[in-house]
Hints:
Layout: H1 4-10, E1 17-22, E2 27-33, E3 36-37, E4 43-45, H2 49-63, H3 74-84, H4 91-96, E5 104-107, E6 113-116, H5 119-122, H6 140-149, H7 153-160, E7 163-166, H8 175-189, E8 199-200, H9 208-217, H10 220-223, H11 229-235, H12 238-244
Parallel strand pairs: 1-7, 7-8
Antiparallel strand pairs: 1-2, 2-3, 2-4, 5-6
Helix pairs in contact: 1-9, 2-3, 6-8
InterPro entries: Actin, ATPase_NBD
Keywords: Signal
Protein name: Actin like 10
Amino acid sequence: xxxxxxxxxxxxxxxxxxxxxxxxxxxxxxxxxxxxxxxxxxxxxxxxxxxxxxxxxxxxxxxxxxxxxxxxxxxxxxxxxxxxxxxxxxxxxxxxxxxxxxxxxxxxxxxxxxxxxxxxxxxxxxxxxxxxxxxxxxxxxxxxxxxxxxxxxxxxxxxxxxxxxxxxxxxxxxxxxxxxxxxxxxxxxxxxxxxxxxxxxxxxxxxxxxxxxxxxxxxxxxxxxxxxxxxxxxxxxxxxxxxxx
Length: 245
């Protein structure tokens, strides 16, 4: 068993920093110092990729009343979301100005053609504004700031120097730029102007946890903690306590 936040950090070669994960089921902001998670400073957002896919389907049906939800299977919607959606850097401004909507048409592969307009940037917005889905509480940038804020002052700057993005829902174009912009704004608004978070947004970060896991498993220090079948057959279950305690 291993912390996904720690493995995400390990994928970048770091053992201290702030892991900001946005995957299929949930988002987390988790501070890690010297390989240890700070659970009391970890924050969770129950909006992520699956939620956004359902939201996109609802938006499309609302914009096209003749389009039945049966014509929009889940896999097709997920593919459409990944292919066409992006994060707006000025959501309210883009929403007000139709000239900034960048409409596009896509074939769903079942004979159905779907036209997206503002839905392209409205779909990922609940990660930043959960209130759009009726959820109370702040968005991911505010949670990332709170995670840093709850850390001891002596560690805060060091963790802010490595803010690692991980998970497929961080791959939307504009996601990293929006998070960076809003995280810096949170720091200034709450009197932490000297805190300058540095985002690490590597290509392939949707697989960051798996990459980090493979790197950790290749370390000699990790391999020394393996239990072989022969060791278990000789010592039994008490060996688990000897090795892992």
